[in-house]
């Protein structure tokens, strides 16, 4: 039996998400439609993205690529914690350098997951939209459903109620049983609590999770392309159903 890693960013977990993405690209007509729109230059694109650094430092920057690039998006509950958003005052500085270590834990976790999945760009509303610019907010908020829909995938911090809490929590260590079979072969069996992962299944109760208690998130969920859900250290998949 295969061991379940307690870390949601372990290679086995990351490879599982990559497999979901590959399956989505090859099997879902909706995803192919989005790719065709991007190739034709007809897809909606955010005003700016977080451009990440893969060299092991916490430095990133806000970027407005001249061409369309694959990106990851984050959806999460802001909560009540104070966070360092992008404003007209710090925009120019963040276009030069954005220190990820200064950001709240949920955003740091989103950066870690995006880097682990080998993506270069990440979209987060509090960072990529200038919060005190009413004109920009009006423009970008109108594009929000498209921004989520046209992301390569959307990370959903499903069970996190506050942006300071993060979502890459270590799972409970599974119970392991070492068995000796009659054939003299050893077998290790791993067991953990059952969790239903099928997002589209009627048994998946979205209302039990903090993120889906927000009306805007339920609405946006109708347009998602691919959502890995981070829920109490577990990862589960959601994808857009074909009509």
Structure description:
This protein has a six-stranded mixed beta sheet with strand order 4-2-1-5-3-6. A two-stranded antiparallel sheet has the order 7-8. A two-stranded antiparallel ribbon has the order 9-10. Residues 197-204 and 225-243 have low confidence and may be disordered. It has one domain. Helix content is 30%, strand content 19%. The chain contains eight helices and ten strands. It has 243 residues and is of the alpha+beta class.
Helix tally?
Answer: 8
Q: Record the strand order, biggest sheet.
A: 4-2-1-5-3-6
Following the backbone from N to C, one meets helices and strands in this order, namely HHEEEHEHEHHHEEEHEE
Average residue-wise pLDDT: 77
Beta-strand percentage range = 15-25%
Compute the CA-based radius of gyration. Answer: 19 Å
- Poorly predicted regions are 197-204, 225-243
Structural class: alpha+beta
Helicity range of the residues? 25-40%
Helix/strand layout:
Blueprint: H1 11-27, H2 29-39, E1 49-51, E2 59-63, E3 72-75, H3 91-96, E4 98-99, H4 105-116, E5 121-123, H5 125-128, H6 134-142, H7 144-149, E6 153-156, E7 175-180, E8 186-191, H8 215-221, E9 226-231, E10 234-239
Parallel strand pairs: 3-5, 3-6
Antiparallel strand pairs: 1-2, 1-5, 2-4, 7-8, 9-10
In a few lines, what is going on in this structure?
The protein is of the alpha+beta class.
Task: List its salient traits.
243 residues, alpha+beta, six-stranded mixed β-sheet, two-stranded antiparallel sheet, 10 strands, 30% helix, disordered C terminus
